Amino acid sequence: MIQIQSFTFGPFQENTYIIYDESKKCVIIDPGCYDNRERNELAGFIEHKKLSPVKLLNTHCHLDHIFGNGFVAEKYNLGLEFNQHDQRIFDAYLATADLYNLNAEPSPQVSKYIHEGDIISFGNSTLEILFTPGHSPGSITFYNRAQKFMIAGDVLFYGSIGRADLPGGDFDTLINSIKTKLFPLGDDYKVYSGHGPETNIGFERMNNPFLV
């Protein structure tokens, strides 16, 4: 059975996720650990649980979701995977951090592009991928059918949606991604977002002011 551990990291209060199962294999999604304390918190959990990281994944490449890419890639000898349409967002990472006067650690270059329909395997478990642009041009959502959950990045939040006014964002595209890709998975799907608390599709379908 898949277990999900979340951490809230960095100046933007971003949610980082470690997904693991009984095999002790795990994937790390959107490591936002910004300083040594946060890096040690992430590594400490992995060590405490005796986990073996096998994948480093980004839902999208805004700076708050990739602050820890370099640390994770080096410590666990992992390649970086994200969707190719976010390459230009990734390329602007350090320049964007400079605009915010943040001391960002460099990220390794992408080692593999991942796409809708791809399967992410770890231990005895899998995650599937949906292409859900709008917040960024290459935003993707990871989901698991058996346990009915998704890691949605900044596409959908509790009572809100991701910003669409950043470079490469588009409001209509974002709404379409939510309604045509996430909603059809079913009301009972749990949503783990890139910021804030978890939610579920049924609640957002009925109550989210951007979607009703």
Annotate the secondary structure layout:
Layout (H helix, E strand, L loop, with lengths): L2 E7 L4 E7 L4 E5 L6 H13 L3 E6 L5 H4 L2 H8 L3 E3 L4 H5 L1 H7 L10 E4 L5 E4 L2 E7 L8 E5 L4 E5 L2 E2 L2 E2 L9 H12 L7 E4 L5 E2 H7 L5
Parallel strand pairs: 3-4, 4-5, 5-6, 10-13
Antiparallel strand pairs: 1-2, 2-3, 7-8, 8-9, 9-10, 11-12, 13-14
Secondary structure: helix percent: 25-40%
How many beta-strand runs?
14
What is the general shape?
A: globular
The N- and C-terminal alpha carbons lie at a distance of: 33 Å
Assembly form of the protein: single chain
Helical stretch tally: 7
Class from helix and strand fractions: alpha/beta
What is the name of the CATH topology?
Answer: Metallo-beta-lactamase, Chain A
What is the number of domains?
Answer: 1
List low-confidence stretches.
none
Mean pLDDT: 98
> H/E element string?
EEEHEHHEHHEEEEEEEHEEH
Whole-angstrom Rg = 16 Å
Which range does the strand content fall in? 25-35%
Structure description:
The chain has helices at 36-48, 63-66, 69-76, 87-91, 93-99, 171-182, 201-207; strands at 3-9, 14-20, 25-29, 52-57, 80-82, 110-113, 119-122, 125-131, 140-144, 149-153, 156-157, 160-161, 190-193, 199-200. It has a single domain, classed as Ribonuclease Z/Hydroxyacylglutathione hydrolase-like (Metallo-beta-lactamase, Chain A, 4-Layer Sandwich). The strands form three sheets. A six-stranded mixed sheet has the order 1-2-3-4-5-6, with helices on one face. A six-stranded mixed sheet has the order 7-8-9-10-13-14. It is 26% helix and 30% strand. The model has no long low-confidence stretch (mean pLDDT 98). It is α/β, with parallel strands linked by helices and 212 residues long.
